[in-house]
Design goal:
Elements: E1 2-6, H1 15-33, H2 42-53, H3 57-61, H4 73-79, H5 87-108, H6 110-131, H7 143-156, E2 161-168, E3 171-178, H8 179-204, H9 213-230
Antiparallel strand pairs: 1-2, 2-3
């Protein structure tokens, strides 16, 4: 299921959501520039950028030593949120952020939404680090913070509907699906994959398959919890 558009109108321009998407895209374009064909050192430059500004759990926990250790491991929690591994990675994250983030921002207000987004990303990073504290594989992507947005959206608008592209073999159709099903299906997938990979991750300290499932789960739960702390300025709207 690929969500395309929800049916909840916004009453304000989502400046923060637009700004976050723009920042992610700009950083991604810079990453792409590091891999321009014809440059024999392009691959090394890209990897160095990821290892320098991505979140490496063992750096955060002190389980591995890095000479100089710049930037500070805590800083990489935030820089890693704006980095992505490829086009489909950033496309999926930004699509979900645009569809669901504008309504959460409209409810919380611009400033509180920015704090909410970053706090969700921090919670996601800590959740994944807790599962694999000795992992030397850097984590990048806005998935954890966006997961927090999804959790908040589900809490705020459980009765919304989402225009969704559904494909099953040769069957392709665009239909309206309740947000409860779209986001419920999404979190169930994260939970199942998290359970399947938990044994391997806990044993080796490395995320299996290159996906930080526990960051997604942690961000989603944090998004729901943070709503209570931030106290939305507007009454919750249900449809």
């Amino acid at each position: 299921m690929l969500p395309l558009k929800d049916d909840i109108p916004t009453r304000t321009v989502p400046f923060v959501t637009i700004g976050l998407i723009a920042a992610d895209v700009l950083v991604f374009l810079y990453q792409v520039s590091l891999q321009l064909p014809g440059d024999p050192e392009a691959g090394q430059a890209f990897q160095a950028f990821v290892f320098e500004f991505g979140l490496t759990p063992c750096r955060l926990t002190g389980a591995c030593a890095v000479p100089g250790d710049f930037p500070h491991p805590v800083v990489t929690i935030f820089t890693s949120m704006f980095m992505h591994g490829g086009f489909f990675h950033i496309f999926g994250n930004m699509l979900y952020l645009w569809i669901f983030g504008n309504n959460v921002e409209d409810t919380l207000g611009h400033g509180r939404f920015l704090g909410f987004y970053l706090a969700s990303g921090v919670a996601a990073a800590l959740a994944q680090t807790l599962v694999g504290p000795s992992s030397a594989v850097p984590m990048i992507g806005a998935s954890g913070a966006v997961s927090g947005v999804l959790g908040a959206y589900l809490r705020l608008f459980p009765h919304a509907s989402v225009l969704t592209l559904i494909t099953f073999g040769f069957f392709i159709r665009i239909v309206r699906v309740p947000a409860l099903i779209v986001l419920g299906f999404w979190i169930v997938v994260q939970l199942l994959n998290g359970i399947i990979t938990f044994g391997t991750t806990a044993a080796t300290g490395e995320p299996q398959g290159g996906v930080a499932w526990f960051a997604h789960i942690g961000g989603f739960l944090a998004g729901i919890a943070l709503l209570y702390a931030l106290r939305p300025r507007r009454p919750l709207r249900y449809r």
